[in-house]
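Weekly sync notes, structure subgroup
Attendees: PM, AL, DS (notes)

Item 1: joint prediction request from the bench team. They want all two components modeled as one assembly rather than separately. Inputs as received:
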Amino acid sequence: MSHTTTLLTGKSRAPFGPMRTRRAEALGAWTLLVPYTLLFLVGAAIPIGYAFVTALQKAPTPVDPTGGFGGLQSFVTVFTDHRFWNTFQNIFVVMIIWLPIMVLGIVGLALLLHASPSRFGGAMRFIYYIPGALGGIANFVLWVYLIDPQRSPIAFLWQGMGANSFKEVITAGNMPGILTAMLFFQGVGTWIIVVNGGLNGISEEVLEAARLDGANAWQLAWNVKLPIIRPWIGYAALMNVAYGFQLFLEPYLLRQISSGAVSPEWAPTQLGYAFAFTNRDFPAAAAMSIVLLAITLAIGWVIVRKSGMFGDEKETA
Amino acid sequence: MTKKLMAAGGTTLVAALALAGCAGGGSQGGDPPAQTDSGGPITVWVDPPRVPAAEAFTEAHPDIEIEITQIDGTVGGQTVRQAFANFDTAGEGWPDAIFFPTNDDIAWATSSTSNYAADLTDLMSEVIEGYDEAVLSFCEIDGQIRCLRNDAAPDVLWYDEVFFEENGYEVPTTWEGYADLAVTIAEEHPGKISGMLGDAYAVNRYLQAANCPTNERVSETEARIDLSAEGCGKMVDLLSQMQEADALSNQGIFDGDAAEAGQNMVMSPGAAWWGNYLYRDTWGVEAGRISATTPLAWEGDSEPTTGNEGGGLWGLSSHITGEQLENAITFLEFVATDPAWQVELSTGLPGYGPVQDEWLEQVATDDYFADIEGSQTAFKESLGYVAPYDYMMYDTGSVWTQTVPPTLIGGGSIEDAIAAFGEELTNQAESVGYTITQ
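Output from the run, pasted for the record:
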């Protein structure tokens, strides 16, 4: 109420200045918002809505080729599928191994870099970033070479483990390790730069004050820098969790090079793909994508709240 | 904040329910799309080894415009299947003719939800007459011929004649004799193997040859899978015996790193195309060593029983008519029957009978096999010994590669591996909608 009064008061006292400013601000806000909103609608909101609609359809089958409204049957299909829990088990095992290594690696290396602002630090920054430059397929091709027990520079490692062919390296037991290595080197360089950005934002006075209080490098990192960059770490964790749940390319291609030794439905996204294109059940594929969306949103929500990624969440965290 | 989110979620769900109630089931559930005639170029999809076939057609028929699309030829690959699922949903986009990368593809291509592959029974009756019934049996679905075989791929017994002569081994004629000799060779020549278990065709090589019901089509929605049947048990016993003696490799014939294993494989059941395509072109085994002989029989049987590995399938679109259809039929007839492809360029024994002798003569000209005449006889004889097998909506070979080699590599026995295979096979079959009978 008081807010309205102030506005009205302002309007009556200065009819042109603030009004113009507000209009300009509104115009600017809309100009900035429209491209994102359009992209969000086309790339996210409409597909999600379409997925909901599709998930509630009935899939035609050879027995009953008619379509129509199917209620929640596609969700029942997804949850009762014999591969459903296996795919999540696979992804959870990878996450449990990869995520802590990834987050520790990102934070540890970023702190090391930040503590070494000399030429050496600059050189290391470049070296750490190199794997990050090898995105997607390029990173995969590099790893295909590294895990080849006949040609790899670390072939002795594979052969020492008794593996002489791709099939013997790419086993169910080795999959989490191989994927952890692939994902770590693919992402760590980029995330070091992001977290380093956070570290660079820390005021020099704060660091100087801590030093004057007698903090050594370790105490400075643990007690001062880490709490300040917590939102950046949270953001890195969030994006990596989201990426982990969407793993598709790596297991799909590992299956190709191991001549089918890896299940075509190894990851949840692959199961969604199989529902659509092997089972010809698009409603089940849509239901699977909604399940994944719900999981990643829930995990994202927890991380956002706990890390205080956004200012207004800090107090509730 | 939470209440707002819940409200937004609830609104979305209600809207989705309303929309879903109004929406139709897509083209898959509606009437079949009308047949079209573009009158323009025909589009054909071929895997890499079949590109020369399409190119030979352009040379032989310059009057017909053709657009060649090279597709992923991986056996068990999903990309073609994915494209067709989209075409079937959209009601357009199909190629006019295709070489299916996996033979199982004919199952979805003829299912009531796709119905892509045209019934060729009347459209190409004269060509069909040229095929041996056994060869074309893989294309006969509910009394209709829905595809044409590119090549016949019956399994023969391949052996290294030089190695056999040097060591005084006699070529086996029975499955039991093959297993015994494999064990002997592995003991006397460690490193020499008598078979590979790691590829999608190993199912056909061993279980089909034992009449083990992994792929028995009872109807469009019923499948018979029974790995406890007698034939399965017989073969599992033989494979166990060989596996324990290190006579088999866990690698597959298509593995990129299998050349060494291939060169050490001194005998194995394998398709007629193995000789040129695998031994000569892929593994680089020198000329004058390898020969094919008559497939193996089970002790007590009067005739051999053998599997079939591939022998690709050509399909024609059911969605075209008029000039487009005529041109696509001309293409299909060429790739299935014309010596310009089937004799001069193809590495496999033609499925089409009238050109088989010409191809066999070409084998003599190549001068690769140690026993040319014996190999020629084996190729031709084996055609009639292939055990029945149906192509299904589930991909048997893919189930094999993801269960059997990993189990064996993990230290499991053949029995464990086949049990895992059987369990996953049943699961996959049920997940695509089959009711399983035993």
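Discussion: The CA atoms of residues 153 and 210 of chain A lie 46 Å apart.
Action: AL to compare against the crosslinking data before next sync.
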